[in-house]
Amino acid sequence: MDEAILSVRGLSKYYAGVKALDGVSMDVRRGEIHALCGENGAGKSTFIKLITGTITPSGGTIRFEGRTYGRLGPRQAMNLGIAAIYQEFSLVPYLTVAENIFLGRETGRLGMCDRRGMREAARKLCEDMGVEIDIDARICDLGIAYQQIVEILKAVSRNSKLIIMDEPTAPLTLKETKVFFGIVDRLKRGGATIVYISHRLEEVFEVSDRISVLCDGKLVVTKATEDLDRRRLISYMVGREIADDYPVPRCGVGDVLLSVAGVSNKHVKDVSFELHRGEILGFGGLVGAGRTELARAIFGADPIRSGSMTLEGRPYAPKSPQDAIRAGVGLIPEDRKNQGVVLGMSVKDNIVYSSLKRICRFLAIDRKKEKACAERQVENLRIKTPDLAQLVRNLSGGNQQKVVLAKMMATECNLFIFDEPTRGIDVGAKQEIYLLMRDLVEAGGSVIMISSEMPELIGISNRIMVMGGGRILAELRKQDFSQERILEIASSKVANQGS
Q1: 474 assigned to some structural domain
Q2: Domain range spanning residue 155?
């Protein structure tokens, strides 16, 4: 296990003077799980892209299985046995699960597509991995968690020697995460080497053999996992001490801000609850429970078939997200890439485009207000960007998420719906988002938070609604919070029933 399968020396990547990766030298031993940690923008994603050949190094060398390369191409890396599971999926939406797993490898005898053999191989792979998924389902019909599982199966199917996993469990609940850990355990026992990137530090300590930390594109330290604890690892990552994980609001809960009565549509069924001023109301449940669909209905993104809502005591029936924003309701969606930001637009334009009325004067944009608004949000949320003109697609995943938050903050809403707000976010940024939520409710606003991270859900919420099958199954008060109780309710027979 001491033999290095991958060695990089002086590996660097510069973008227009920005040092995304700066002279990194490190070894990954054969058969180990090597965790790579760091804040958003530390250089982790750049490291992956250099190793998998999707970008060209500005300097340094890559040594894999005894051979040294100045650079690798994508096909070359794949042929060498290097595979990567990225935060952003690389699946074809209208192909099936089986077709995506074997995309590019469909041919059988005589050059014909062997669909039967492909489906059988996909089914056998799912059985071996302990994964329950319809191999004939189209990717576009699957939730994010199942799409992530398909990405994992795709990498596993290639019998890769080195698998790089970038936030592989970010969209997964505890149940799916356990399935995933079973896959990781099988891969390690089979001799595969894994570079594991995650902001969920409890996972890092659970699965890894060694940990390397990047900060501002430089390697800070590499240590055996047993020689580190959580606090020491965080200090290496952020260069400062982090306060309590879940800051408690210093205000009481007030009167009702939002009332939802018997709301139903295609995905949610007879949902009723109240949200108070100064409250963080958590929504827990398994994948497919209906939490995101409820958020979209409240935000006017999906139609409501029956039921009613009131906001600040007045009827509230948004026909579109624009209606919701005008009423003071903002949504930070789970899928930032497709629903949260416009990747081809600048940081500034993404931040201000949902609040143009606030920065317009006589139908023309007030450029000073526009710039001031964007600069304020970049500073408040510590978005790492060279300037406001930077395209969002060039930011790290975590900073893209911060731009989504900034866009909603700029609208000055008083009810915010956070759907998996810390997915793919580092520990320092998570703390900033928790503090932001606290500040929002202390200022008289309210927060609905959907999260699959149980410690986060329990730590930040005043109350928790547990959903399943599109319904609210239980309301839990602070004294009743526990991971076991939430999972017991969420996975009950009632939760898994249809309509």
Answers
A1: yes
A2: 4-238
Angle 367-381/397-409 helices, nearest 10 degrees? 130
Residues 207 and 275 in one domain: no
Could you tell me which of 247, 232, 166, 228 has the C-alpha nearest to residue 199? 166
Cβ atoms of residues 413 and 325 within 8 Å: yes
Tell me the per-residue pLDDT of 422-433, one tens digit each, with 9 for 90 and over: 876 777 778 888
Q: Which of 238, 264, 282 is the last residue in one of the domains?
A: 238
The pLDDT tens digits of the residues spanning 452-489 come to 888 889 999 999 999 988 999 999 999 999 888 888 88
Mean pLDDT of the chain: 86
Domain co-membership, 322 together with 467: yes
Tell me, what's the pLDDT at 499? 40
* Structural contact between residues 107 and 69, judged by C-beta atoms closer than 8 angstroms: no
DSSP letters, 115-176, are HHHHHHHHHHHHHHHT----TTSBGGGS-HHHHHHHHHHHHHHTT-SEEEEESTTTT--HHH
- Note every long-range contact of 14-23, with CB atoms under 8 Å and residues 24 or more positions apart, other chains counting: 14/58, 15/394, 16/386, 18/386, 19/216, 19/217, 20/46, 20/217, 21/46, 21/47, 21/50, 21/217, 22/216, 22/217, 22/218, 23/59, 23/60, 23/218
Average pLDDT over residues 399-415: 85
DSSP letter for 226, please: G
Dihedral sign for Cα atoms in the order 108, 113, 114, 118: positive
pLDDT tens per residue, range 68-125 = 999 999 999 989 999 998 767 789 999 999 999 988 776 566 566 778 888 898 999 8
SS3 content of the chain, % helix, strand, coil (to 5): 35, 25, 35
